[in-house]
Amino acid sequence: MSDGARDTPAQRGSEAAGNRDTPAQRGVSAAHDGLDDLAGARARLAAAQAELAAALLAGGPAPAGFDERRVRIEARALRNKRRRVTELVRPDLASGLGERYAPLFAAWAPAHPRLVGVSARADADAFGAWLVEHGHLPPPPRRRWRRWRRWWLRWRRR
Amino acid sequence: MTTAPALGVGIGWRPEIDLTVERLAGVDFVEVLAENVAAGSLPHSLQVLRDRGMPVVAHAVSLALGGAEPPDRSRVAHLAAVAEAVGAPLVSEHVAFTRAGGLDSGHLLPVPRTREALDVLVANVREAQHQLPAPLAMENIAAILDWPDADLTEGQFLAELVERTGCWLLVDVANLHANARNLGTDVGAFLDSLPLERLAYVHVAGGVEHDGVYHDTHAQAVPPAVLDVLAELCARVRPPGVLLERDDNYPSDADLAGELAAIRAVLAGP
Q1: Which of B69, B103, B114 is the best residue to mutate to test the A interface, defined by the most A CB atoms within 10 Å of its own CB?
Q2: Quick one: closest CA in A to B123, which residue?
Q3: CB B194 within 8 Å of CB B176
Q4: Residue B200, φ and ψ in degrees, nearest 5
């Protein structure tokens, strides 16, 4: 299971910006044609992989040359895996939604792709917060306990 | 080292089946998912296996060596630390990418088989190798879709990777079966194009077919067709190790023992 918790915001930024080289890498590249080629290869690969990732994870169009049906099947397989992982770390969401779990996850996922650096747990929590926000699930009961405990503490002091 | 050390028949160690792995007869080695353990506090079960002298291979899924970026040094360092902690004779990763455009796929995605993508992969593998304390084996993945405009077949791509980096091969016969079913990969031609003297070990796993697409789930029994691919490999080379992967929907100890026995039967030959 891939867990991106170790990524730094700086790395996220550079990936989101399409793999820009650091000034140091540019300096080295200028001195060696081979490395310059590699930097270009990295940039072109980054763009191609980003386009496929957007199609598979964020509901984007299939990139040119790809079998659209296969892209849809792969997108569904990736979404199902993400849903299973979500169920592992937040079983309360699936049990609270019952049969609505899978269709609601399918509705939420492409509009909220998992970003680099977001752990599986944070990803599941984001889905949980969205469900509460849109009225599909009641707020977590823990909050009610907290409120009740605060009331009890006040009551005891009287 | 000209050939990889013999490992025998093994099973992927997972926390859910830790006691099963400890008590199963006929387990010669195990593999641990590096991302799921901390090098400083290994699970007790792994320590027990280590104390028995059982080889523990460190397997990674998140280095994304087929990605456009150079490998994340902290991820490679984590794999290196786990490999040190378990005394791994080998470490392994996939020919795949998992991050692009700021998105995390959560699963292995295939790399375009172009010369240019191979150059990037080679650079990334070399960089990881510098940081790792054990030989690196690279694994073929299961794909549902293929990139257009490939310069090389999957076998040629892996063969060149081995030649240029000196890495070892981890051949996943279930993934090969998946690609044969889904993408029309020719199993025999694939195996013939690989430098099998660089084979470190083999993965075997179960999957399921939906609407004509084979999904490599690691959640079902190993189908006969996957064992047939293992037999095709064994007709060409004696694998130093064969490891059963099971990641979900765990069966009884007896069922897992049966799957290991089925693998041994294929290794023993017709």
Answers
A1: B103
A2: A38
A3: no
A4: -95, -50
d(CA B54, CA B114): 39
Instruction: Report the 3 state secondary structure along chain A.
Output: CCCHHHCCHHHHHHHHCCCCCCHHHHHHHHHCHHHHHHHHHHHHHHHHHHHHHHHHHCCCCCCCCCCHHHHHHHHHHHHHHHHHHHHHHCHHHHHHHHHHHHHHHHHHHHHCCCECCCCHHHHHHHHHHHHHHCCCCCCCHHHHHHHHHHHHHHHHHC
Give the residue from A1, A2, A33, A127 with the most B CB atoms within 10 Å of its CB, the best one to mutate. Answer: A2
Q: For B156, phi and psi rounded to 5 degrees?
A: -60, -40
Across the interface, of B105, B116, B145, the residue whose CB is closest to A44 is B116
Chain mean position to CA B27: 17
Q: Using an 8 Å Cβ cutoff, are B187 and B155 in contact?
A: no
Q: Which of residues 151-210 of B touch A (CB under 8 A)?
A: none
Q: Test A56 with B97 for CB contact under 8 angstroms.
A: no
Distance CA A153, CA A148 (A): 9
Q: What is the pLDDT along chain B (270 residues), one digit of tens a residue?
A: 568 889 999 999 999 999 999 999 999 999 999 999 999 999 999 999 999 999 999 999 999 999 999 999 999 999 999 999 999 999 999 999 999 999 999 999 999 999 999 999 999 999 999 999 999 999 999 999 999 999 999 999 999 999 999 999 999 999 999 999 999 999 999 999 999 999 999 999 999 998 888 999 999 999 999 999 999 999 999 999 999 999 999 999 999 999 999 999 999 987
Q: Name the token pair of A32.
A: 């060696």
Measured CA to CA, the distance from residue B139 to residue B120 in angstroms comes to 17
**Is B68 part of the contact surface with chain A (CB cutoff 8 Å)?**
yes
Report d(CA A17, CA B101) in Å as an integer. Answer: 7
The CA distance from A15 to B249, in Å, is 35
Q: What is the predicted ipTM?
A: 0.94
Structure tokens at A98: 């019952």
What are the structure tokens assigned to B156, written together?
A: 């040629």
Contact call for residues B133 and B78 (beta carbons, < 8 A): no
CA-based nearest distance A14→chain B, Å = 8
SS3 B45: helix
CB < 8 Å to A105, chain B: none
CA neighbor of B216 nearest in space, from B184, B169, B181? B181
